[in-house]
């Protein structure tokens, strides 16, 4: 009895300690989120680390809500022509990285319905009004990262092929770690929630975007709906887009700690989800964090394939409905932007902790290989089709009076000269007198023999 009581005294504090440090993991997808994993974490700065992942169950807890960027501001019209929305809409965004290739988060389409087409360059969600300029393309192929399995610690990325190229400007993919170094400011964007517990009202305004059918979608082969796997998908569009694709980062320094990055989307725009802001594309700046802080504040964080960022003022965050959207290191214009991440997951109370993004530099080679080996596209060369502009109306000119004709002169008589005959070349005996080639050769040999005999014999 004494031994049992002693064991209970040891177990009770451990139970409460574990209960205090257990975090439920969720995704940035709009709709209902289902807790799929519980991980013991060490609290740091009282940060709530409830994250989100794709739903895989019908057992939906009533207290969980899912989807605009919270905080932030309305993105300027046509500032992000590479921003993509899917149809049928899964509650996720994406980015155009090549006139015929789109990437997004794998969890958006893992074990679920696949999109048929995409709108490229849209600004206002759920609306098509006069004056809109966007492109629609059909998705003809979709490739999920081979390591993605719906879990964590796997690449959450998918690539899609479009049926026809888009004329929009693609975004560049990061190629250097400096793009995401500590303290770098990055920008997230999307149409997710504008508050944590609700959605935003819509205001229909003129817009410029394209709609394209998705003809192929590939999830990262390592994605499995868990953490620590590549949350990436790639799609092929039926037709090219005229919008500017986003560049993919090549350098890990693009997202080094301290770098300011920009997230964008149509997700939540406030913590409680109820707001009066218009349902337009929003973007917000966040600051890249160190791997140590990400490890301390994010459950299941995997630094080899993930990066994390947070607004230091805790007023701006990507939220539910923003999944799959790009996180960019902004340049002077869309053509100069560099995509460093894909919105993957974050706290359910979106302002309470860092957001986690797929690290583009870790998945760039896979994306590049799928584009080249499966579709014959080059990631580093983005030939964009030129939009067909209507011919400009010809200016109406006032009638011009014809000048009076000048007096005609009598034509000069030029004497006719006899034709000049070309000089006649002397015939070459062997070639011009013998038609057979073999006879010509014998003729040449005998001629040379005769000449040699005259001079040497």
Automatic annotation (TrEMBL):
<feature type="region of interest" description="Disordered">
    <location>
        <begin position="378"/>
        <end position="417"/>
    </location>
</feature>
<feature type="signal peptide">
    <location>
        <begin position="1"/>
        <end position="27"/>
    </location>
</feature>
<dbReference type="GO" id="GO:0004252">
    <property type="term" value="F:serine-type endopeptidase activity"/>
</dbReference>
<dbReference type="InterPro" id="IPR001314">
    <property type="entry name" value="Peptidase_S1A"/>
</dbReference>
<keyword id="KW-0325">Glycoprotein</keyword>
<dbReference type="InterPro" id="IPR043504">
    <property type="entry name" value="Peptidase_S1_PA_chymotrypsin"/>
</dbReference>
<dbReference type="InterPro" id="IPR018114">
    <property type="entry name" value="TRYPSIN_HIS"/>
</dbReference>
<keyword id="KW-0732">Signal</keyword>
<feature type="compositionally biased region" description="Pro residues">
    <location>
        <begin position="384"/>
        <end position="408"/>
    </location>
</feature>
<dbReference type="InterPro" id="IPR050430">
    <property type="entry name" value="Peptidase_S1"/>
</dbReference>
<dbReference type="InterPro" id="IPR001254">
    <property type="entry name" value="Trypsin_dom"/>
</dbReference>
<dbReference type="InterPro" id="IPR009003">
    <property type="entry name" value="Peptidase_S1_PA"/>
</dbReference>
<keyword id="KW-1015">Disulfide bond</keyword>
<feature type="domain" description="Peptidase S1">
    <location>
        <begin position="69"/>
        <end position="372"/>
    </location>
</feature>
<dbReference type="GO" id="GO:0006508">
    <property type="term" value="P:proteolysis"/>
</dbReference>
<dbReference type="Pfam" id="PF00089">
    <property type="entry name" value="Trypsin"/>
</dbReference>
<comment type="similarity">
    <text>Belongs to the peptidase S1 family.</text>
</comment>
<protein>
    <recommendedName>
        <fullName>Peptidase S1 domain-containing protein</fullName>
    </recommendedName>
</protein>
<keyword id="KW-0843">Virulence</keyword>
């Amino acid at each position: 009895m004494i031994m049992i009581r002693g064991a209970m005294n040891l177990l009770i504090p451990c139970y409460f300690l574990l209960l205090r440090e257990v975090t439920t993991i969720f995704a940035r997808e709009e709709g209902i989120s289902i807790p799929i994993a519980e991980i013991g974490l060490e609290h740091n700065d009282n940060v709530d680390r409830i994250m989100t992942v794709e739903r895989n169950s019908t057992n939906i807890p009533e207290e969980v809500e899912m989807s605009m960027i919270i905080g932030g501001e309305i993105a300027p019209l046509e500032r992000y022509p590479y921003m993509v929305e899917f149809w049928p809409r899964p509650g996720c965004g994406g980015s155009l990285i090549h006139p015929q290739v789109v990437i997004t988060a794998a969890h958006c389409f893992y074990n679920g319905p696949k999109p048929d087409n995409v709108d490229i360059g849209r600004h206002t969600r759920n609306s098509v009004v006069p004056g809109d300029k966007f492109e629609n393309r059909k998705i003809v192929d979709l490739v999920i990262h081979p390591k993605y399995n719906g879990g964590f610690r796997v690449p959450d990325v998918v690539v899609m092929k479009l049926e026809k190229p888009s004329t929009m400007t693609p975004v560049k993919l990061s190629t250097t770690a400096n793009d995401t170094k500590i303290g770098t400011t990055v920008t997230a964007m999307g149409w997710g929630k504008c508050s944590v517990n609700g959605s935003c009202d819509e205001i229909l305004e003129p817009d410029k975007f394209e709609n394209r059918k998705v003809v192929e979608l590939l999830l990262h082969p390592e994605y499995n709906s868990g953490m620590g796997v590549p949350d990436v998908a790639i799609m092929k569009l039926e037709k090219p887009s005229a919008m500017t694709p986003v560049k993919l980062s090549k350098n890990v320094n693009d997202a080094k700690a301290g770098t300011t990055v920009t997230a964008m989307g149509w997700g939540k725009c406030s913590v409680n989800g109820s707001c009066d802001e218009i349902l337009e594309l929003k973007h917000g700046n966040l600051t890249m964090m160190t791997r140590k802080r990400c490890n301390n504040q994010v459950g299941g964080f995997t630094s080899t394939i993930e990066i994390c960022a947070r607004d230091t003022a805790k007023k701006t965050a990507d939220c539910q409905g923003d999944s799959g959207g790009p996180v960019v290191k902004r340049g002077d214009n869309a053509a100069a932007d560099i995509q460093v991440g894909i919105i993957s997951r974050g706290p359910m109370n979106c302002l309470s902790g860092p957001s986690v993004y797929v690290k583009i530099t870790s998945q760039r080679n896979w994306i590049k290989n799928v584009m080249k080996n499966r579709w014959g596209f080059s990631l580093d060369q983005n030939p964009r089709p030129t939009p067909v502009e209507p011919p400009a109306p010809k200016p109406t000119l006032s009638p011009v009076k014809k000048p009076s004709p000048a007096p005609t002169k009598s034509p000069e008589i030029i004497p006719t000269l006899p034709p000049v005959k070309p000089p006649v070349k002397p015939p070459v005996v062997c070639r011009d007198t013998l038609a057979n080639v073999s006879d010509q050769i014998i003729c040449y040999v005998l001629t040379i023999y005769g000449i040699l005999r005259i001079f040497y014999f």
